[in-house]
């Protein structure tokens, strides 16, 4: 059995591999490996587009209702999504602490600790998050008074009672809430008009109109 000497291609040091029977994942020596690979891959900055009206967050190519309490929660979530921890790291623990700088900037202080190739390492990165306030597609359509169908709440030969009108509107709003909870961002009540002959409900989609009319 002969043992071939290995040398680090970067610094030229002889490499002792005996302790790693599973084989190295990089030809570099311990020291060069640790300086070459960060424990954490963090973006320089993260931009988050939020709807200033309803708090929805733009992700990928669509708006998503996140139900966040405030934007620091959103910032922490988005930064966490964007961070990449080294695949070979073990026993990784981390925390992200948000610091509100001003209305549109949140600094997130991320600290990590883990074990890389048997060496305990810690790393701290600060990722600034810029919050861009916009109007989401739905709020834009609500504000624009867009609607696709009108459901007229009427009674024969009389005006529907206040109770009947109230119930019809509540039913429409309940249905919208159910659809929203199921991820449908297109359903909304655009306008409610109380008329002498009854109630007019302007609804965003014909499908919603058909379901409310039942
Ligand atoms: Zn080296
Ligand atoms: Zn919105």
What does this structure look like?
The protein has 214 residues and is an alpha+beta fold. It folds into three domains: 1-35, no CATH class; 37-134, Immunoglobulin-like, CATH 2.60.40; 145-213. The protein is built from five helices and 13 strands. It has a four-stranded mixed β-sheet, covered by helices on one side. It has a three-stranded antiparallel β-sheet with strand order 11-13-12. The chain binds zinc ion (2 copies).
Helices and strands, with pairings:
Layout: E1 6-7, E2 14-15, H1 30-36, E3 40-41, E4 46-51, E5 57-59, E6 62-64, H2 71-82, E7 84-85, E8 90-102, E9 105-116, E10 119-134, H3 137-143, E11 149-153, H4 162-181, E12 189-195, E13 198-203, H5 206-213
Parallel strand pairs: 4-10
Antiparallel strand pairs: 1-2, 3-7, 5-6, 8-9, 9-10, 11-13, 12-13
This protein binds zinc ion (2 copies).
Keywords, please?
214 residues, Immunoglobulin-like, binds zinc ion, alpha+beta, 3 domains
Can you tell me the overall shape? rod-shaped
**The first-level CATH class name of the largest domain:** Mainly Beta
> Could you name the ranges where pLDDT drops below 50 across 5 or more consecutive residues?
none
User: Helix and strand string, N-terminal first?
Assistant: EEHEEEEHEEEEHEHEEH
Helix content class: 25-40%
Widest sheet: strand order? 4-10-9-8
Number of strands: 13
Global mean pLDDT: 86
CATH architecture heading of the largest domain: Sandwich
Q: Kindly identify the CATH topology of the largest domain.
A: Immunoglobulin-like
Number of domains as seen in the coordinates = 3
What percentage of amino acids are in beta strands? Answer: 35-45%
The unique ligands bound to this protein are: zinc ion
Rg: 29 Å
Number of helices: 5
């Amino acid at each position: 059995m002969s043992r071939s000497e290995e040398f680090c291609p970067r610094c030229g040091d002889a490499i002792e591999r005996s302790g790693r029977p599973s084989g190295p994942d990089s030809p570099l020596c311990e020291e060069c490996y640790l300086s070459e690979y960060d424990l954490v891959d963090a973006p320089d900055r993260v931009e988050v587009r939020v709807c200033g009206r309803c708090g929805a967050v733009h992700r990928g190519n669509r708006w998503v209702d996140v139900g966040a309490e405030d934007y620091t929660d959103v910032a922490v979530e988005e930064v966490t999504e964007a961070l990449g921890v080294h695949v070979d790291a073990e026993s990784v623990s981390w925390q992200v602490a948000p610091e509100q700088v001003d209305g549109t900037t949140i600094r997130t202080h991320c600290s990590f600790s883990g074990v890389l190739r048997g060496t305990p390492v810690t790393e701290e990165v600060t990722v600034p998050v810029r919050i861009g306030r916009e109007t989401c597609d739905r709020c834009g359509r609500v504000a624009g008074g867009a609607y696709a169908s009108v459901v007229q709440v009427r009674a024969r030969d009389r005006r529907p009672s206040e109770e009947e009108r109230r119930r019809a509107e509540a039913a429409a709003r309940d249905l919208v809430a159910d659809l929203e909870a199921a991820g449908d961002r297109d359903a909304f009540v655009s306008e409610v008009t109380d008329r002498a002959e009854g109630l007019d409900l302007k609804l965003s989609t014909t499908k919603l109109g058909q379901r409310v009319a039942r």
